[in-house]
Amino acid sequence: MSTTSLPTPDHAAELRSAMLAAGFTADGLLDLLGAPAYAALARSETVPALRATRGGGEGPLATLVRLFLLQQPVPYVHAASACPVEAALADGWLRREGDEVHATVDVRPYGGPGGEDWFIVSDLGCAVGGAGGIGSREEGVVLGVGGASTTLAGITVRTPVGSALDLGTGSGIQALHATRHATRVTATDVNPRALGFTRLTLALSGAPEAELLTGSLYEPVGEATYDLIVSNPPFVISPGARLTYRDGGMGGDDLCRTLVQEAGERLNPGGYAQFLGNWQHVEGEDWHDRLRSWVPRGCDAWIVQRDVQDVTQYAELWLRDAGDHRTDPAEYARRYEDWLDEFDARKTRSVGFGWITLRRTDAAEPSIVVEEWPHTVEQPLGEAVLAHFARQDYLREHDDAALLEAHFTLVEEVVQEQVGPPGAEDPEHVVLRQNRGMRRATKVDTVGAGFAGVCDGSLSAGRILDAIAQLMQEDPVVLRDRTPEAIRLLVEQGFLEPVARPGQ
Asked: What's this model's pTM, rounded to 2 decimal places?
């Protein structure tokens, strides 16, 4: 584990002011570097950014980019014109070698959801999209912002809460987001170094301090309960706890299972727990059932599988993540064999990745939705998560008879697509497609398409079906009997929205 000492946040406010004054922000980077070089950074490619800042190395913004983001040494005089260099040296943000100064940490400008100018602090070369990207084989390395981090931040429910817990905080991005809407934020990590980086991230971002606790899973917080729990845990299923930032140290997907199963008793009534995770697809076992078994008593759940990789793809991904493909070929082959041996022993044929959201309801009949949706979505999805659970409440409270008495409207941004041979009188099938949120698409029959198109809140579902039955010369009783299941699906997936009537 890295033993390099971390900076202190004593003069973080002064450093922040200098960075903002120089335009060292997400927007400022885009303006300075241009779109191609800025996009290349997200792929951990730094040559375009180096070229873009080479000619203007004396400018404060270019100096800060080369120093903190690209980890290039800069002349002391240039650093002095861009930031409070003596305070930064004294606090340990910089170190001096002759006439040049070097950054001791990665600092990545990061735009908050409300337009905030934030900064994520991490180990050198480990701000994903920064100087070196991932590839470190150091056990206790602390990474910066990556795709998983921003995904979790985007799906998290952002209603105001009294307390929030970020488990396995890393460089502190989830805790930073939580400070916007939680009165009290607690961040934990098994790696004390990560908590040091979280402290720096919060201080340099001008955010309130958080309670920082060392330990694994829920152990550091004792019996405390929270309104919101979030975690981007070290979920990689690997043969051993080799790298703290990614390998949980438990066999198979036990870490993710434990994290989910023990969340229920840590949530306040109505509270949410939201995780990213990996799970095994085991021979002879339905993965849907595997994940349903994780859901704790008293919780609704929405679990979305976003991707599946076979075990060879998965092993190769994480071997490359650690830079093992650049080592001795025999050593690489040995490690690869270790991964495949681990999967064979557990009868694992593939690995799923996705989101798990729990809501503490204590309902007699919990709603547990486990689905696969690998298609493009529109982030942020926090509002979509709230809407999903609100729809589950509605459907739980309305039987088929109540649905037929209810009024609905077709949600905005839904379009209808008809598929069939050119010139055919009737389409083979009709698809309703959302252009917002989860961007779902669902097939409907002629009745379903007609029903959805008429829903404007003015007529009850039953009266609409009666009119459709008359047009199609069908028995209205039969149509009323067979259609509620389709209505229920359209409501559950967010195509139809219930309309509150006077007195309801």
From this structure: 0.94
